[in-house]
Amino acid sequence: MPGHDYDREPDAEKALNDVLIALFEHSDVLVRHLIPELLAAQYDNVDKPSVYHRADIEIVLSKSMGIIRSWDPELQAQFVAGHPRIGETKNLSVLSSKEQSGGTSQPTPPEVLARLVHLNACYEQAYPGLRYITFVNGRSRAVIAEEMEDKLGIAHSLSPDQPLVHSFTPIDKSSHIWCQELDRAVEDVGQIAHSRLAKIVG
Q1: 196 near 20, Cβ under 8 Å?
Q2: Torsion angle, CA of 143/148/153/155, rounded to 10 degrees?
């Protein structure tokens, strides 16, 4: 949300909502859980969280991540899924579109996009209930595809349908591996938010 004039925002709660959506993407979990919990939290010397200055937003972001880390795994997974899948090209926020483009104006080759669609399906078969999220940090979609292949333990390829989705055995949600992957995704969401903060307020 570059250019947003926080100092003139008449409604503090709306300003908080707008900032959190910019940092984390819109989701039902953000609206129904994170924002109410932030508003109910105790803040030093103020009744409610403020987002009128960068230091205020940094405090809100830190408190937000603390709240998110305290949630049960199911709620955390739903929150992570507020981010679009890697390789999606439609209905993206401005910031997501820029992040997924890897900072270039060149379109992603269609074979890479097709590969990412397949890799997302494979990942969601292997990690039921999770969506693959990563801090792109200027990398291309082709590079992220290789990262996903490494995560899944498969060869680098541009095949749109191999290996078969159902060749992946679902990992139990109560297992250490599944929980570790959820923790990684949550922390990457935090890194994305910190990166976006720099873009929003400089």
Answers
A1: no
A2: -40
Question: Concatenated DSSP letters for the chain?
Answer: -TT--GGG-S-HHHHHHHHHHHHH---HHIIIIIHHHHHHS-BTTBSS---SSHHHHHHHHHHHHHHHHHS-HHHHHHHHTTSPPTT--SS--HHHHHHHTTT-SSPPPHHHHHHHHHHHHHHHHHSTT-------TT--HHHHHHHHHHHHT------SS-S-GGGSPPPPTTSHHHHHHHHHHHHHHHHHHHHHHHHHH-
Residue 89 contacts residue 113 (beta carbons within 8 Å): yes
- Rounded to whole angstroms, how far apart are CA atoms 178 and 3? 39
R_g of the chain, CA atoms, integer Å: 18
What mean pLDDT is reported for the chain? 89
Q: What is the pLDDT of residues 89-113, one digit of tens each?
A: 888 888 888 888 766 668 899 999 9
User: How much is the pTM?
Assistant: 0.88
Burial annotation 52-74 (CB, 10 A radius, 16+ → b, else e): eeeebbebbbebbbebbeebebe
